[in-house]
Hints:
Elements: H1 4-8, H2 10-41, H3 50-65, H4 72-81, E1 84-85, E2 88-89, H5 90-117, H6 122-146, H7 148-190
Antiparallel strand pairs: 1-2
Helix pairs in contact: 2-5, 2-6, 2-7, 3-7, 4-7, 5-6
Amino acid sequence: xxxxxxxxxxxxxxxxxxxxxxxxxxxxxxxxxxxxxxxxxxxxxxxxxxxxxxxxxxxxxxxxxxxxxxxxxxxxxxxxxxxxxxxxxxxxxxxxxxxxxxxxxxxxxxxxxxxxxxxxxxxxxxxxxxxxxxxxxxxxxxxxxxxxxxxxxxxxxxxxxxxxxxxxxxxxxxxxxxxxxxxxxxxxxxx
Length: 191
């Protein structure tokens, strides 16, 4: 009975499997992007990651404009919300992935209802439920392997540590050197 579903409802089954597959792929992309960023954040001073470089530059500009940075953690959390893969934010990808897995469950329910309406037996409709549960299981396994929340947390800690303990110190040191040079220049002009 399990494989008869492919012959009786080919388009619906292919749609369900396709939606599940796309949802899982999105989770893996998010995990991959965050994983690469975590690795790059280990050596922030020499990073080649475009988004991390932009984060450092924006931090420097905010620090200079505000004459200091009040809450680095909030700055980093805002940055994490804006991380992109291609043109799409990771947060948007994550939401789409979740909606797609729910859509696959909806399609499975529609398939079961359609089968019942066509007079199919419980055994003939059961594969739709099996596909739905298997899809949910695979989605949660992929989410677990992607480790999105753990990677996000690790990236957050690395960025906060770097910005608070390295960047702020360098910026203060640079500021002091510039102030000393300005004082010397002002004295030489006045003399």
